[in-house]
Structure formats: C-alpha cells, structure tokens
Queue: 2 jobs
Job 1
Amino acid sequence: MRASLKRSLAGAALTLAALAGAVPAVQASADQQFFPLATYRVGAYASSGVQVWAGMIDYLNYINEVEGGINGVKLVWQECETEWTAEKGIECYERFKNGLDGAPVAVYQPNGAPAAYALSERAEVDKIPLITLGYGRTEATDGTVFPYNFPVMLTFYSEASSLINYIAQREGGFDKLKGKKIATVYHDSAYGRETLGPLKLLAEKYGFENIQIPVADPGNEQSAQWRQVRQLNPDWVFLRTWGVSTPVAVKTAARFGFPVDHIVGDIWASSSEDVLPAGASAKGYLALTPYPAGADFEIHKRLKQYILDKGKSDLKDLKNFGSVYYNSGLVNAAVAVEAIRTAQGKFGKRPLNGEEGRWGLEHLNIDDARLKDMGYFGLMQNLKLSCRDHEGGGSARVQQWDGASWTLISDWIPADRALLRPLIDEKSAAFAKEKGLTPRTCTGDE
Amino acid sequence: MSIAIPRETAPLLLTQRSVPWGLLGLLLIAFVAVPLIGNDYWLNAILIPFLVLSLAGLGLNLLTGYTGQTSVGAAGFMAVGAFATYGFLLRLPELGLPVALLGGGLISALVGYLFGLPSSRIKGFYLMVTTLAAQFFLEWLFVKFPWFYNYGSSGTISAPKLALFGHDLNTPLGRYWLTLVTVLLLTWGAVNLVKSQIGRNWMAIRDMDTAAAVIGIPVKRYKHLAFAVSSFYLGIAGALWAFAYLGTASASSFDINRSFQILFIIIIGGMGSIAGNFVGAAFISLLPILLSHAGQALFGGSVDAGQLQNLQKIIFGVLIILFLIKEPEGLIRLLSNLRDRLRHWPLRF
C-alpha cells in the first residue's frame, strides 16, 4: 500500500497504544459487590437511556462515597452496551454473570424488554435474580413458578387497576364508575395488549364500558383512532402508547377536541420526552408513574450536595436532573441496593451471590421509615416482596404536565392486586404446565 | 513394419481430490476442542448465534446468491419456522424435537413457496417488494393472533422442553450440540444441492434467466423451488434462533432489521458461496463483540461510554466499506484469493 497510508495507519496504532496505557479500565476485587450495568447509549432510545444510567451511577457513587458502600462493602460497576436488543443483552449478561475479578453479582437488571424476555429462563438456571421494574413478564409476579424473575414495584396489570382506582377517585367513588366509558388507545404490540385482560376484568366488576382502540406501530398517524374516540365520546382515555405514538396521540386528541386533561398516559408515556413534541396541546395531560418527576425529594438534595455540585454526576446535561428517566434510574438502583442490604442482614456484611440476592429480594421490606432514611419518601412506594409475591408494590402516582414541568397531583394509588391475582396465577400455571415445572412451595425462609 | 502410433490416453483422474485439511481442522475444533474448553460465555454468546446466523445466511444465499431472487423477507420466514416449531412442541409433544424442527421447516417452506409465487411474473426490485410485504405481514400475523403464542400476556414463545431421546438439551453445551449438528447436516445438504443439477439450474437462472428458459430449464418451477428450499433453511434457523439461542422470542425478534442483518451477512460474506455465509456471519455478529471487548479493555476508563459505543459503530461501518471496496464479491473471495496467492508463494501473482 502507499507509503502515506502506511504512515497514517502506524500513527493511529501508536496513538491507540498510548491512550490504552493512560487510564486503566474498571478493576474490581473480591471484597467488592459487582453491579453489572447493561446500558443503551446508542440507538433509538439512547436519549432516555442516558438519563436512566446517570441516575443509577449517581446513586451508586453516592452509596460508595457518602455511605461508604453497603455496610462497608463497596460497589463496583461496569457498563455494557445492549442497544436495546436481545442479542447484545444476552452477550452482556453472559459476560457479567460470573462477576468481575472475583466480585460477585447479586442481582441483574436487563434494562430492556427484549433482553428481559430472553434472559428470563437463563436467570432461573444460573440462579441470578432479574429485576424488571415496570416491564418484563407479568406472570413472574408468581414467585413459586419464577423464583428468579422479579417484576418489582408495578406490573402492567397493577397499572391498569391503579388507573381505574384513580378514575374512581376523580369521579367520586366506585359506584360512580357504572355506565362510564373508558377508552384505551394502545400500541398494537405485546406491550400494549398486556392491559386488555385486566381491564376486561375490571370492567366486569365495576360496570364501566371498556373500549379498546389499537394503534399500529409506529403510530405516526392516528386520525382514524381519535375520530373514533370523538364519536364514542368516552369520559376518560387511557393512553397505552410509547415512543413517537405518544406525542402524536396527544396532538391528534387535541385536534379532535378531546380534553387532554382526561387522558391518562401509562408509565412509558409519562416523561417529558413524550409530551414536549406535542407542544402546547399537551398542557393538562396526566400520566401514571411509579417514579415521579421532580428534583426536590430528599435524595435529590443529598445528591446535589455530594455528587452534582462536586462535578461527579454522570449527567452530561444537568437540566435532566430530576426528570422521570433520571428518577427511574435512582429508583432502580435503590431497589437493588436495598435488596443487597436486606440479604446482608442474613448472610453477613460481605459481597453476595445470586442466590443470596434472591433471598434479599424476597424478604425486601421498605416501609415509610426506611424510605425517609434513604431520602426516597414520596419518590418510591412501600415495597414488601415475598416468595409468592415478586411485585411487592402495585401503586402509582399521577402527575400532570403544565407545559414546562410535571406536578404531582395524587398520592400513591394502590392497585386491586387481590382481584387481578387469579389472572396472573392462571398464566403462571399455564407456563408451568407448558414447561413441566413443579412450582415450589413457600415456607417463608427459603 | 508399421510405425508404432503413440496412443494418447485420457488422464485417469479428471479432478484432483485432495484431503480438505482446513475443513477437517475446523470440524475437529468444533466437535472436540469447543466442548472441552468452551465456557458458558463462548457457547451462549459467541458460537451459537454465529452458527444460527450462518444457517440463516445459507438459506438466504440459496435464494439470492444462487438463484438471483433478491429477498428482504428472511426474518419473516425465520419467524414462521420458530412459531411453527413452537406449535409442534406445544401441541404435539410426542413427536419429539427433530420432527418438530422438520415440521417447522416444512411449514416455513410452504409459506415461502406461497410468497414466492409472484416470482413467476416479476423480477428484481419488484420481487424484493413482495418479499418486504411478506416480512411485514408475517411479523404482524404473529402479534395479532394470540393462538400462535398460546395466549401468553407478553406475546413471547419459549421452547416447552428441549429434549432429545431423554437427554435434556437445555444446557449451553446441549444447545451447542443441537445447533452444530443441525447446521452441519443442513450445510452438507446445501453443498450437495448446489453441486447438483438443481444448483446448476439455479445458477443459470441467476446469470441469464432468458437463456436458461431457452435451453429448456423450467424457470418458474426452479424459482418456486428456490423459495421453498430457502424458507426451509430459514425456518429451521429461526427455530434455532428462538429456542437454542434466545430461549424466549417474539415476533419482534424477527423484524426487518434481522432481515437486513442476514442480507448483509451474505453480501459481506459472498453471494453464491457456502463458506461465505460462515465468514459473513462471523464478521457481522462477532466483530462488534470483539470491538466492544477491545474498546472496554483499551479505553474503559478514559473515554465516555456513549462515545465509545459510537466509535465502535463507526469503525464497524468503515471496515464494511473498506472490505467491499477492496473485494465487492465478498470476504470469501478475498480469502480464496489469499489462499491461491499462498499456493504460488513466493512467486507473486
């Protein structure tokens, strides 16, 4: 090849070699707890993802530096890009599942629905608990069939029930729901269809008319759906969309004259990225969320003091401090940390492995006092998981968009989990039958 | 006395058959070395996806590389195979895994045949559009009708029980054996197929289908056969992708991006070759992992993680451009040129 090309290649190689020696990669040791971070900083969801990882990393830094680790055990983490695909998610999991330099893995967050589904059975075999907060397999709520899958805090079933309870609150009681019309505009995918079952059951119980209107992926054009909504004239609309279909839905609803303050978005249609593109027509839009937006919770004050003001935050754009996605990262990290802390109470103040992490998750009990200690009071709900109940929470709060920011307009609204549990048990029993599994019996201390 | 007329006899051996040392070496590594020293990461994240993608590339190559019918619907046919195999394993478990895989492949072949019927009338870009329609239709089909995924709430399928003659195949090594044996059997079948009359007819159709029709090759029949055989391979690849690799799949695992990925595998690897699929699959699926490890090892602490990821994607894209400029016929041609050069070394050609 030509001499100049050879020289430039040699120069590039030398630069690489020089840079390589400059700063060492992440190093861990056997007395630390490894926290794998399966991220997506590239791809269609990168702009939201970046905030989630910032929330997680900031909280982990806070735990390490301010609290000295979890009971003295420092955390070490390494990122691995998944691009929100299943293949990279599997590759990252396989890379990390044995820990890093002797530091073991206690819990794993797949951070992406395709990866969560692909890993759900591997995790059972490898005995590493998967935490899928707000996504993942709903039937994994039944911990007897899914010992290592944890759809913590809020599944789509609970979200549907929370919505109905909120609407009942607004209408003045459950008896007022009879005869009302509640339309669900949903993204026609597995995600959007998850709430078909629970809403049908709730409609039978409370006597409201349950209208389901699908929107084909990606949902750039929704005139037909909202014209139908206009004709039916429901009292409330449950918006079960995500990505670009959310702002399009809000804009189209405003165009057809449906009052935006009677549209309640689901948890994946509840961030500022979802409403800002809709502009002024989104003012008054409501959304359910298990991790409300806001930067004035106690934990934010602490993070601002110890992490942000010292320039150690992972956030590149500090405007996103306190956004929905940033707070979701905080909440995800908190659940993992508290699970490890709970497990340390039984197994000793040392780095823990997957089985011990599972024990910690199944005995997780975060009450008001603990939330106040952590600084998460108001940001996170009470969680009490068990062997039979891998969800543990089931409440959501409602926030409203005023054109520039989100304001919380309700307290934690619990779902009617007892009503929905038979649906979940039916699905988990079908799964167990399909796989020839025997569900384990819960004695209380396994 | 007459002069003795020298008699020229034809050489007794028309072709020189040599022992394929390279292939034997690779088979040795695959059957002996990997099970001995392979760990979970290598089996689960590197070898199994590589083998399954090679099989998928092989399927598409039979259609696009050998018969010249451009298709961007590969992932749709993979989905048919995956869901059909799931249906067999779920509803007729007594048939067993090999029959379920074959059944999935056959149903996929039928669907491929149906979507290949337009090839009797249209060619080139227009045929590509019908395969695109197949891709979107099949992806929609497996989301819309819950019967396909047994009414599960998340729309996903997972293999009920991967077992062969009593042995549980659900371990990384078990799934590796399943994938390796299936891929080898199907590759051997494909090699024989392309060397036979069928393969020669396909190549004639690809090179000049009017001339092929003139010399008497039933062009329509062979085109439909190509669609069917290609979809058979893609269906089995899809079933393996869903059950031997992912574990749990849904229609979105077989979206248009997967179709493009397989098309890129055969373009980079070499259209119209069998070994090219393996090289292409290694390039497309394994090189990003190598770049990711290298990036992590070299720049883990110093460069921002998002920038590092984007840098890897840039490098990958640049490598594709460079290789295709250097050798448009694909990496396999590059490798075979290299092999020929080595034969003549130290003489240059």
Job 2
Amino acid sequence: MTDRIVAELLSSSPWAEGRAARSRLVEGAEEDGLLDIAYRTVDSPVGPLLLAATPVGLLRVAFAGEGHDGVLAVLAQRVSPRILAAPGRLDEVARQLGQYFDGARRTFDLPMDLRLSRGFRRAVLDRLVATAYGQTVSYAALAAASGSPAAVRAVGSACATNPVPVVVPCHRVVRSDGRLGQYLGGVDAKRTLLDLEAGGGGAPE
Amino acid sequence: MGPGPFEEVVREHAAVVMRVVRALLGPADADDAWSATFLAALEAYPRLRPGSNVGGWLVTIAHRKAVDVLRAGARSPVATGPAPEDAWIDDDGPVERDPALWGALQSLPFKQRAAIVHHHLAGLPYAEVGALVGSTEAAARRAAADGLARLRRAYERRALP
C-alpha cells in the first residue's frame, strides 16, 4: 500500500539533473584530477565513432560495430572505471576528424595515449603512423618494416586490435594480391576511408 | 572484476540523488549538492567493494553533502514555516509539478524530511535511515510517520482554494 502523499511526491518530481549540475561534476572531476577517461561520440561517414581520452591523450576510437557500451566496460577494467561523458576533452580530436572526413586534413596532430598497445603490436602502429595519406602498404611490407618479415599474421592482428583506428591508419594496410583484406570497422568502412584518401581531398597543410 | 564505467552509475542514480538533495535543501542548493555527491563518489569509486549497494551508498553521500550545505548556512535556510511557492520555480530544469507539496515538505523539521526522503523516495530501510540521521531504526520510522502526517495536513491546507 503506497501512501497517497508518497505517491504524489514520487510522481511530481520529474527532474533529471540540470545541465549546470552535470557540467559542474565534469569540471570538478577535471580540476581534481579524477577524470581518468573522458569520452564522447561523433558522427562520421563511417558511422558513429566513440572517442575516449585520458589526460595524456587519445586512448580509444571505436566503431559502432564494436559496441560502444562494451568498449567502455573494457576500458573500465583495463584502464580505470573513472569514466564520464565529457565532450570538452575530445574537442580537438573531433575537430581534426571533421577536417579529415571533409578532405581538408591529411595527418593528425594529436596527443596520443597508446598504453593499450604493447610490444610488436605497438611497433606496427608506430610504423602505420609513418604511412602516407592516399598510399597503401601490404601486410607483408609492414611486417618487414616492423622488424619481423615473417610475422604477417601478427601484423593482421595488430591492425585488428588497433585501439585508435582512423587516427592511426590501419585502413591503409591491404593484401599483396590487391584485395582489400579485413578491417575492424568493416570492409565498407575501409573502402570509404581509402576512397576518401584516394580522392585527394583539399590542399595539404 | 572491478566496477564498470562511472557514467553508468550517474545515469542510473541521477534522479534519486536529485530528489534527495532537492527535498533536503530546496532548489537553490540542490545542483551544487548533486555535483558534490557524484564528485565524492567518483573519487571513492575504484575502492567500492564488489556487490555493494551503490544506490544506498550514494544516498549516504548525498545526505552528508546536504548536511554540509545546511551547516554552512544555505541560501535557502532550513524552513520552519511554509516556503513561498515562487522559490520552487527553477529556470534551469523542468518545474516540479506540485510546488505546494514540495513547499510543504520543506517546512518539515529536518529529521522528518530526511526520514521521508531516504525511506520513501530513495528506498533505504529504516535501519539505514536511522544510522544516517544519527538515531535508531524506531526513531526513523516514527519520524517518517510523523512527517507524513504533518505533510498531509500542511498539503491539504495549501491545496484548499
């Protein structure tokens, strides 16, 4: 039996927290050094992208197909559970991605936090950053450039586990026989990105 | 397996925490107390024991933050009489649908207000409510019952044309 007054109280308080309260939480977390991971979602020609960053730099870019909730749950385990939706920290990332998709930017100039990638996989990502806009490289050539010519399959899994796709361009890695190969964001996304870069875009900066 | 993303905790418990601080403090100080509650929770969050009752934990923090505000001399003082209804119009968020009722709630003594909010709005058992306000389970139960009776009388007085 619910008291009538209690029912009135419950039904008459439709508040969500105000914008002010929410911003104050995010600001306070930044100031107190508690915002271990800030994230936001941006739209793109390859679908909605989850962007997550630590105070050090960009930590994670995820496609919708990876399941954004699951991605955040993994970050909570592997890095820190102090995770809040806090778009401000990702403003510059969002801005540069927008320019890239507009064809107005060829390289990213962003602080990165690549702690999620280690050892050989990290070496592969470092080599990827050095590839040129509009160019592709084969898995075999990338393996050789990463110091392990036989490790073609390992290069494949390094690409498949790239924590920051699009920004670190694993989409530029293709098969030696000319076929596209796989892509963690789906083959359509790979084609979209390669076509974007082949189109030449705007003037290089 | 540690705790999940804190953002999920905020989403799940934002409304209950807001009800608690609004009921205890009124609209002027509620936002600050809400943020202070979740900020304190964010700090302690990695140390939260698995299987803990997160909602109850947050209400405990919210209660302490509200008491801090009241002790510091809030802009909206602990009312002993009816609060003007204009005080309940809040430009930042949706207007609560029953200012008369929330005004009447604000006119209750703190312990009665706290007992009603923590038990009936936030779902804490009376034993926990007692611990929170520094009294016994029985006293908390009495405070809630007395508070509701007073609230009913005050509300019906206001609602009369």
